[in-house]
Specification:
Blueprint lengths: L2 H19 L1 H17 L3 E5 L5 H6 L9 E3 L13 H6 L5 H7 L8 E6 L5 H12 L3 E6 L1 H4 L18 E4 L7 E3 L8 E3 L1 H22 L15 H11 L8
Helix pairs in contact: 1-8, 2-8, 5-6
C-alpha cells in the first residue's frame, strides 16, 4: 500500500475515533460557543506556530464563525527567521500572560487553545491566566503525547490541567504518523487535519444550536460569490462589539 493511502486510512481512523469518543466534549464546546454568541460574550482562539493554524482556520473563513477572534503575538506564528526561534519563544515563562492580558477578554468569555503536546510555557500560562479571569478554556490537545512528556512550565503542570472543556485529537505520540521500514522518524502529521475537523464541526454545531433558538448564526459567506461582500459587511456590523480583528 502506498503511503498516500496509508495516510488517508490513518487520518480516517483517527477522525472516526475522535467523533465517537469526543462527542460529548465537542457538544459541550458547541453549547458554550452558542451561549457566548447569544449572550454577547467574546470568543478567542490561540495556538503557537503550527498549532496556530487551527486558529487561522476558524478566523475570517467562509462558513466560519464571525465572532472568533485570533490571538496573534510576535514569535508565535512562524513569522520569524530562523523559525527555530519560535520553538524557543513558546517555552518562555510569563509570555502567555503578557499576550492574554493585552487582549480585550473578560470573565465569561471563551478561549479556544490548541497544542499537540500541551507542555510549553506560553500555552500553559495563557490557559492558567484565562481561568483566573473566569474564562471558559476549550483545550484541543493530543493526550497520547501530553501524557508521555514532561511539562516545560515552572509549575510542572500541562495545558490540559487548565481545561474547562478538554478535546483529545487522538493523534499518534509526537503527531507524525507514517512509519517507513528501517527509517526511525515517522512522517506526516495529523493534528492540523483533525484539529480543523474538530473545531469546524464544533462551530457548525454552535450555529445549529443558535438557529434552533431562532437566532441567526454569525457566519461568513465567501467573498468570491455574488453578494458575499455585502453579506459579510452586514454580519460584521451586527457583531462589531465582539469582533476585535477589524
Amino acid at each position: 500500500m502506498s503511503v498516500i493511502f496509508e495516510y488517508h486510512k490513518h487520518v480516517t481512523d483517527i477522525l472516526t475515533e475522535v467523533f465517537d469518543k469526543e462527542a460529548a466534549a465537542m457538544e459541550e464546546a458547541a453549547a458554550a460557543l452558542a451561549a457566548a454568541n447569544k449572550e454577547g460574550r467574546s470568543i478567542f482562539g490561540f495556538g503557537c506556530n503550527h498549532a496556530g493554524l487551527i486558529t487561522l482556520e476558524l478566523f475570517y473563513r467562509t462558513g466560519g464563525m464571525v465572532t472568533v477572534n485570533p490571538i496573534r503575538a510576535p514569535g508565535m506564528m512562524l513569522e520569524l527567521s530562523p523559525p527555530t526561534m519560535t520553538s524557543e519563544m513558546e517555552r518562555i515563562p510569563g509570555y502567555g500572560r503578557i499576550i492574554l492580558n493585552n487582549e480585550p477578554c473578560k470573565e465569561g468569555d471563551i478561549l479556544i487553545i490548541h497544542s499537540v503536546s500541551g507542555r510549553n510555557a506560553v500555552t500553559i500560562d495563557m490557559a492558567e491566566c484565562a481561568r483566573e479571569k473566569g474564562m471558559t478554556v476549550i483545550v484541543v490537545t493530543n493526550m497520547n503525547t501530553a501524557t508521555s512528556v514532561t511539562s516545560r512550565h515552572p509549575s510542572g503542570k500541562m495545558l490540559h490541567d487548565f481545561a474547562s472543556i478538554l478535546i483529545d485529537n487522538h493523534g499518534d505520540r509526537g503527531d507524525a504518523t507514517i512509519q517507513l521500514s528501517g527509517f526511525e522518524q515517522k512522517l506526516a502529521s495529523t493534528s492540523t487535519v483533525v484539529g480543523a475537523a474538530i473545531l469546524n464541526a464544533v462551530t457548525a454545531r454552535a450555529s445549529e444550536l443558535l438557529w434552533a433558538e431562532g437566532i441567526k448564526p454569525p457566519v461568513f459567506m465567501s467573498g468570491n460569490i455574488d453578494g458575499g461582500d455585502a453579506y459579510n459587511k452586514a454580519v460584521i456590523a451586527e457583531h462589531k462589539d465582539n469582533i476585535f480583528y477589524m
